[in-house]
Amino acid sequence: MKKLMKAVSLLMAVMMLLGSVAFAETDMEYVKNKGKLIVGITDFAPMDYKDENGEWVGFDADMAKAFGAYLGVEVELVEIDWDNKILELDGKTIDCVWNGMTLTDEVKSAMETSNAYANNAQVVVLPTAKANDYADAAALSGLTFAVEAGSAGEAEVAALGYNMTSVHSQADTLLEVKAGTSDAAVIDALMAAAMVGEGTDYADLTYTLALNSEEYGVGFRKGSDLAAALNEFMAAAYADGTMMAIAETYGVQAAIIPQ
Amino acid sequence: MELIQQQLPIVLHSLNIGFLQTLKLFIVTLLGAMPLGLVIAFGSMSRFKPLSVFTRVIVWIVRGSPLMIQLLIIYYFPGLVLHNPIWGGGESGRFLAAAVAFIFNYACYFSEIYRGGIQSVPVGQIEAGYVLGMTKTQIFLRVKLLQVIKAIVPPMSNEIITLVKDTSLARIIALQEIIWAGQSFMKGSQGISGAIWPMFFTAVYYLAFNGIMTLLLGWLEKKLNYYR
Amino acid sequence: MLNASNLMKSFDGLGVLRGISLQVNEGEVVAIIGRSGSGKSTLLRCLNNLEKVDGGTIEIDNQALVKNGVYCPAAMQRKLCLKMGYVFQNFNLFPHMNVLRNLTEAQCCVLGREKDQAQKYARELLQKVGLADKEKAYPYQLSGGQQQRVAIARALAMDPEILCFDEPTSALDPLLTQEVLGVIRSLSAEKRTMVVVTHEMMFAREVADRVVYMEDGVIVAEGRPGEVFDSDKVRSFTGLGD
């Protein structure tokens, strides 16, 4: 599947080169002309999620709406398949990816990214019963890991050189651990906090050590001038306190990076 | 168990919305692909060689390549290659693109079934209509049509039931059909996260709907069994 | 009534009809006999426009269906062929229609008759072929002989001037053959104009006013049954004779 997507992306990239001759307007002009900023998201509390009325809310969602107001355009939040985020950007079906996206080298090379705005980590998820046996990274060497294909967690486990299985989504990695087909999973700390432990189907799982620390950013089309505009906006919003106010609404104020 | 009881109303609400999308895609595909398939069938049976060859090549391409790739191409190519994202990024645009891909794909499958059905009517039937003075249209409508329908109902039933399940492929372009809705509770949605059962529960919807379809198509098949 | 001259027809370069001329007069029964592959069925199919000739002329009621190999417009072809009735070797009844509907369908949609009128006529014809009690039956519920009798009634329902039979009993076993021949016999007694391609030599001899013997796409012998069957050429084929 991943190879297939890569082949398609490559094919599309070649055709894009052939097609991208006349391209006068900047990305900001393009968005302003159509009067709408389409934001690609997934259901990812507390960054983007639906409230009781079915409205998209969350730290990222609210920031995106504020950025739209700053640009003077309407904002449409559209749920996408995370695997296809670059396809969606380049195919102009969305204008940015704003969904607690880790700024990896891959992301930075494929998109025009904003400054980092929040801290995150990749954490190890294990059955609670075994958690004490695996206190440090060295102790993990004998385990088989489930990771999301193309995720920051995959990169971390690969760097350690441990056995791993890449699956479709972060949620699937937990299914692997729960079903016993993998020993442990590596996912986002923010996500792990929401998904495992009491009150979930993964009550017997817990998360332990962090393998790294990393940062969230917003992604635009390669070469877009909107990234710089967002940096200006975030600096202003941090300075006047609106950014922290939004963060406090969703309980992520501790993770916010000063702009 | 108690947990599931709490989650049930929220999950069912989401799954219902997702299933409505599945159902919509299914119905639109059938309504579009059944007539288009007939046009393609006539194209591939045309005595005008270039037309029949062209049609058969198209049918080969569409039937020979994965529907998933066709969905990706139809949805993303206009923006990627032509710099004109005709479908837009919203939900309705994604649905439209999915519908176009499904209609075209299924029309090609249907066309082959139609072709087989039309060619299965013995030439003697057409000649019998002709010697009674019927026009070509009269022969098609009064002599062939019902015999063709009888011949194609069983293979069409197969395709229709496959279509119900194939609609789940549309999630590749983020059409939020029922499996998408079920999976959203795994990573977290509407306060429920780490719930596995909703995804498996979607199978109940498919089974129920396919059960109804099977009964309906079985009834039609039986109805046509009044002659041999 | 029917006038064909110098008909030519070939399939893949193989001459099937090689200069056939045939005339059928009103009230006459013509039997066409000959070996398999002699072209007799092709001749009948050409006369009914089920095959197109490569050359020659066919006139029906003095109007040309084809003149020197050139056909008249399609609508005219259909109109002319309505004067001809055709009964197939393997019946070709419409399987999805009951017996009555088989007889009324073309009456209504081609001749524009009212449904009541068409049904009344259909019942008369079914009576005539001895199947009055089968009008609700579907073809698959009938024996071969019964199906062929329905097919004859279906052709008669269109009031053709000339009724053609293409080996009407070849697909039937001997017992059922007689009931079909009986119907044709009774039609000849009514002085209907008929052309019968057949293998039934005794029947041809008995019913036909004229017999045509074909071999390799040409007519080798033609005349009153007695003359034709007694000629040496035909005798070697039929095995009949004194």
Brief sketch in words of this structure:
Chain B is mainly alpha-helical and 228 residues long. Chain B has helices spanning 2-45, 49-64, 67-82, 91-120, 123-131, 136-166, 178-187, 197-223.
Properties at a glance:
heterotrimer; A: 259 residues; alpha/beta; D-Maltodextrin-Binding Protein, domain 2; C: 242 residues; 27% strand
- First and last CA, distance of chain B: 54 Å
Nearest-integer average pLDDT of chain C = 92
Described by its quaternary structure, the protein is heterotrimer
Number of strands of chain C: 11
- In percent, how much strand structure appears in the residues of chain C? 25-35%
| Rounded mean pLDDT score of chain B | 93
Number of domains of chain B: 1
Number of helices of chain B: 8
Order of helices and strands of chain B: HHHHHHHH
Largest interface: chains, residues each: A-B, 45 and 40 residues
What about the largest sheet of chain B?
none
Q: Mind explaining what this structure looks like?
A:
The complex is a heterotrimer of chains A (259), B (228) and C (242). With 259 residues, chain A is of the alpha/beta class. Chain A is 38% helix and 24% strand. Chain B has helices spanning 2-45, 49-64, 67-82, 91-120, 123-131, 136-166, 178-187, 197-223. Chain B is mostly helical. In chain C, strand 10 (210-215) and strand 11 (218-223) form a beta hairpin. Chain C contains nine helices and eleven strands. The chains are: A alpha/beta (259), B mainly alpha (228), C alpha/beta (242).
